[in-house]
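Tokens as discussed.
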């Protein structure tokens, strides 16, 4: 049966193992000469750096040393330069083929396309053979057992496809991880969102033990610890930002972020996600992701980084305010904090357990003892009331009677 033309794309990721980073130093002068460097520079590098490398091993009651003739020293001044000098040529190995090689450090990815499935497999095998031959010529080795392949075909199925690398058959997978981002065949990045949320929740549970509602660290320290979770979730956000347009992925992100938001606000689980985010001053995670992507795209279009950050932040806060106005929850909190920017821009007071109770549902238990703290003084009010509105009226009236201090 003849195959119909298609626009399927195949991506292969040959990962280089530790043994593949070992290269004989005799290749370095050859690379210098191939790039038309001055011969004097070649001799100086060879004599001053390559000729005196010595590995010293210290063991209790004994010591030994050996001269190095291969490898790239981690942390050395010339390490990155020498590695690029040795490895940069692999990007030219597939020139003229229907493919594109992408390298980052010792990770190499090949993106191959074809009009038909058969043509795509042929192109992929040619690229793998060319890369494998280049590696062997430069004393490097690929690890076929660690090489992964994925068919970026969307919802279409492509059964029976396999690729060959040095006699090893590589079967396509549903998802692969490249540079910390999980790529699925449909390019929805749903599996990536699920994985980063699971990891964030584990980290949040560990940090939550250090941040009890009462007697824990102040808000500033809580925010610093929460940034650890946020930074992990926002890694490469501009790449997978389209995932937040799907409802279940957006809700998954907000659910994972909620754990740290409650800890910043010193709130119980009964506090709504909308109210906890506003009280803690934490932008919803889906808006954070969109902000990162918008900032990245603006910089790509030529806008200055500082201006791009400012514009994307203002737009994200505007969307947050619209969401807050349309929220059907936390009516009392919204009455006290109608404008988020004014709340975030205040120059006094930190959020604590008592403040959160007052701002959310102070009178939920029928009668409470509310403590309102500030940097200057702490006033304790004891009132037996039924609603937060009555308590607020009592505080205002009592303050007017006492007058300013």
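Sequence:
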């Amino acid at each position: 049966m003849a195959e119909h033309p298609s626009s399927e794309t195949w991506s292969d990721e040959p990962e280089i193992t530790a043994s593949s980073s070992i290269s004989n130093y005799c290749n370095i002068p050859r690379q210098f000469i191939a790039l038309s460097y001055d011969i004097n520079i070649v001799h100086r590098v060879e004599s001053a750096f390559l000729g005196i490398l010595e590995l010293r091993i210290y063991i209790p009651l004994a010591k030994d040393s050996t001269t190095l003739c291969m490898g790239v020293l981690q942390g050395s001044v010339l390490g990155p330069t020498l590695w690029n000098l040795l490895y940069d040529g692999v990007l030219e190995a597939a020139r003229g083929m229907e493919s594109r090689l992408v390298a980052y450090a010792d990770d190499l990815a090949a993106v191959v396309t074809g009009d038909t499935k058969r043509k795509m497999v042929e192109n992929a095998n040619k690229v793998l053979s060319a890369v494998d031959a280049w590696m062997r010529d430069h004393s490097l080795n690929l690890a076929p057992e660690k090489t992964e392949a994925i068919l970026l075909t969307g919802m279409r199925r492509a059964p029976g496809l396999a690729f060959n690398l040095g006699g090893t058959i590589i079967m396509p997978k549903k998802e692969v991880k490249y540079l910390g981002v999980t790529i699925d065949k449909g390019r929805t990045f749903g599996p990536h969102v699920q994985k980063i949320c699971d990891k964030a929740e584990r980290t949040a549970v560990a940090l939550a033990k250090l941040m009890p509602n009462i007697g824990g660290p102040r808000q500033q320290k809580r925010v610093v610890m929460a940034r650890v979770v946020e930074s992990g979730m926002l890694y490469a956000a501009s790449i997978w930002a389209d995932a937040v347009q799907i409802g279940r992925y957006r809700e998954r992100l907000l659910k994972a972020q909620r754990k740290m938001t409650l800890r910043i606000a010193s709130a119980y689980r009964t506090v709504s996600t909308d109210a906890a985010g506003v009280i803690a001053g934490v932008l919803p995670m889906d808006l954070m992701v969109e902000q990162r992507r918008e900032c990245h795209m603006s910089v790509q279009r030529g806008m200055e980084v500082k201006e791009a950050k400012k514009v994307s932040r203002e737009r994200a806060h505007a969307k947050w305010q619209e969401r807050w106005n349309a929220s059907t929850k936390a009516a009392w909190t919204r009455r006290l904090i109608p404008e988020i920017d004014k709340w975030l821009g205040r120059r006094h007071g930190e959020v604590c357990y008592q403040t959160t109770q007052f701002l959310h549902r102070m009178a939920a238990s029928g009668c409470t003892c509310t403590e309102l703290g500030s940097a200057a003084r702490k006033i304790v009010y004891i009132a037996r009331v039924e609603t937060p509105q009555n308590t607020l009226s009592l505080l205002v009236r009592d303050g007017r009677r006492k007058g300013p201090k």
